[in-house]
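Technical note accompanying the year-one report. For the benefit of new consortium partners, we illustrate the data format agreed upon in the data management plan: each record pairs a sequence with a structure-token string. No post-processing was applied to the example shown here.
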Amino acid sequence: MRPGGGRTKGHAFEKKIARELGLWWCNDRDAFWRVLGSGGAAHASPGKDWQPGDIVPVKRMDRELRVCIECKKTESWFFEEVFKVGKKSELMKHWKQCLDERAGRDPWLIITRNRLPVFLILLSSIWKGPLRVHGVSTSFSMRCKGVPTAIVVSWDLFRQKFRPEEVHAVLSTVRK
């Protein structure tokens, strides 16, 4: 890959996920945008109207999706890392970044690499029960000492099984 090509690939992935998220959440492909500088909004003037993550809602109605969305399209991780309990890995590093930047929101790490489907990584403490109730049994837990347990599920399957109002209901039960 030519120098800087990975950044372009990552930006294209973020735009793709933003469009998919908007179509799923409110049938508007422009409802969510990729943050210029990816994550830059997480460090801009806290206390004002700011959103953490790589993708943020840009329309008023979409702001009820209170999540921190981090996107990674990188060749530096392998799916097998999900099964390495207690070991630090590239995948766990990305999950920890999502946790660190979430600013009180539910962390969503959307990740892929070439020739793999897109996966969504969620907090197990919030999503394990709702995933089971919705018949999503094809998920995996990811554990590492000192980091909250994550659950890994197919991004496409998650959007097929959950309607936006169901996501909103799950997130409203955990809000303080």
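Partners are asked to follow this layout when depositing records. The radius of gyration is 15 Å.
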